[in-house]
Amino acid sequence: MRCFLAVELPRPLRDSLATAISRLQGQLPPARWVKAEGLHITLKFLGEQGEREVAALVSHLERGLKGVVFPVTVSLQGGGFFPDSSRPRVAWIGGAAPGLESWAAAAEEAAQAIGVPRESRPFSLHVTLARLERSWPAAACERFLGELSSLALPPFPAGEVVLFSSTLRPGGAVYTPQLRLPVGGR
User: In the predicted model, is pLDDT for residue 185 greater than 70?
Assistant: First the structure.
């Protein structure tokens, strides 16, 4: 199965982001906007994995998550682009969650144990909102960032890592929770 490890956003927060996305869609150039049910914070993309690899990953991750900070309070705010605003391909909302880096590190360790290469970049807390079909002009990037700067979202406590499967469909990827792993040895 094609899968990844993530922090799931609470339904009310996903709905608030979906409302913000619907406002932005009409004001910005074309993009593939993420649906509410697809909004999450990726800790580690794993790619295609078999049942044995997933079982081994879960075993490693359960051990790794016992010693991490929990719960973590996640505050989403501000935004940006990957790779950057001069060549935007992905539009996202960022935020802060002191301690979440330790969750991402545990996910990296567990993934490496089953043969998934380590990320070359450090963990960056973000929620992908859109994949741009073409780079947006500077004015569109500024509008996106301005809208996100005025977005007030309530912080939320995160206490579990979710293993999601990802099924690619013509209308976009469908993410299905497969397993929920509590953090902190609970």
Answer: no
